[in-house]
Amino acid sequence: MNAIEEALFVLVFGISAVFVAIFFFYILIFALKKIDESINELRVKKKLKSGEILDIENLLTPELVAVISAAVFEAINKPIHIRKIKFLKDEKSGSWIALGRQNIMGSHAIKVSRTKI
Fold it and tell me: How many domains in the chain?
């Protein structure tokens, strides 16, 4: 019974150590995210005070529509027709969300090779 008790102790101690390490990294990532958000807020406030950023609400121009349509055409490699442009209101969208959108757009641009091996 001594070997079983020792094995259970090692099991519980090992699993506890892993969860403590994972929780530590979670706290570290959460803190770094909050620090990054506060630094970005300070940068935006500084640019707003200096007048570099103007009214963002009325920024949709024909040139911007042309640039967006060219970027979508380049990503998808198909002719497109833009029906609606929706700006994201959430500035706190993480890089994971942007990466997911990029992967989705990239998945539509699959090029099939017609060469015979």
Answer: 2
Q: Which two tokens stand for residue 112?
A: 């099939």
Range(s) of the domain holding residue 86: 56-117
Query: Do the Cβ atoms of 75 and 105 come closer than 8 Å?
Result: yes
pLDDT in tens, 38-52: 998 888 788 777 765
Please give the angle made by the CA atoms of 93, 96 and 100, to the nearest 5 degrees. 105
Q: What is the reported pTM?
A: 0.40
| Shared domain check, 29 and 5 | yes
For 87-103, how does the pLDDT look when each residue is reduced to its tens digit (9 = 90+)?
Answer: 666 655 667 777 777 78
Cα distances from 102 to residues 96, 106, 109, 111, in angstroms, run 10, 6, 11, 16
DSSP E strands: which ranges in the chain?
none
Q: What is the CA radius of gyration of the chain?
A: 25
